[in-house]
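Is this the right way to post structure tokens for a design question? Let me know if I should format differently. Anyway, here goes:
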């Protein structure tokens, strides 16, 4: 469960996000939408204790993220390529993350073998450093590495961006599989309203740092969002 209380962040006196109260329950799959600069990445960064809030607090499974590291045992994220280690190959990076999450090499080999199709023959066994992969392929590595160790809370910032159409479809299926048994809490931000609606059971929209929509996904949601963003 994620609890957000009176969270705000200011830069040089300018408030870029403010959310009074928001609760995300275990098992929910959240799509976070909003125009450029709406505050999506800022919200994720606050949840992951990557930046200090100006006011308020965020709790992941009842743990205040800026007071203890315990939430890291159940939480994972891929925000951007700064989460990667550029001088490692994909395999070395997967083993490194596996090591952090108590997984041995054999279990990582078995884990990454499941994603052969997602990697589309461009990631494994190539002996390329992560810095030399295309942006889309770096993203594929980051997303799959984020899933190592079966974390309960998964935060993905714009996972569809830079991915080719085949991979976008595979990623949608992957997210749907992850959410199916309602054991995981998944937050995905995206500018693609179609994708977001398809993989999320609840949509949260930000506008200029304020929460302006919080709706259960239904057959009308895509149209509602398109109308909202058409203004
Ligand atoms: N370090 C910083 N210093 C000053 N302003 C910042 C800083 N980081 C973010 N901001 C501002 O906070 C606001 C929200 O940015 P954020 O990256 O969270 O938006 P976003 O919704 O993720 O946008 P996008 O869709 O373009 O990725 C923007 O106005 C941005 O310029």
């Amino acid at each position: 469960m994620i609890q957000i209380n009176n969270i705000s962040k200011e830069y040089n006196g300018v408030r870029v996000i403010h959310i009074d109260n928001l609760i995300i329950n275990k098992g929910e799959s959240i799509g976070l939408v909003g125009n450029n600069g709406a505050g999506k990445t800022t919200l994720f960064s606050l949840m992951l204790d990557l930046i200090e809030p100006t006011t308020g607090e965020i709790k992941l499974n009842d743990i205040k993220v800026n007071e203890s590291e315990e939430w890291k045992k159940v939480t994972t994220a891929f925000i951007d390529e700064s989460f990667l280690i550029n001088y490692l190959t994909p395999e070395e990076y997967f083993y490194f993350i596996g090591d952090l999450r108590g997984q041995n090499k054999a279990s990582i080999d078995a884990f990454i073998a499941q994603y052969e199709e997602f990697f589309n023959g461009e990631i494994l066994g190539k002996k390329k450093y992560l810095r030399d992969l295309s942006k889309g392929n770096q993203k594929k590595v980051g997303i799959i590495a984020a899933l190592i160790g079966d974390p309960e809370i998964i935060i993905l910032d714009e996972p569809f961006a830079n991915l080719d159409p085949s991979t976008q479809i595979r990623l949608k299926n992957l997210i749907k599989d992850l959410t199916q048994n309602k054991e995981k809490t998944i937050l995905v931000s995206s500018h693609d309203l179609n994708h977001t609606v398809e993989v999320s059971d609840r949509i949260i929209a930000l506008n200029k740092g304020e929460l302006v929509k919080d709706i259960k996904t239904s057959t009308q949601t895509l149209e509602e969002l398109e109308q909202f963003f058409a203004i």
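Format looks fine. Someone answered above. Worth noting: The CA atoms of residues 8 and 18 lie 4 Å apart. The pocket of adenosine-5'-triphosphate is lined by residues 11, 16, 34, 36-42 (CB under 6 Å).
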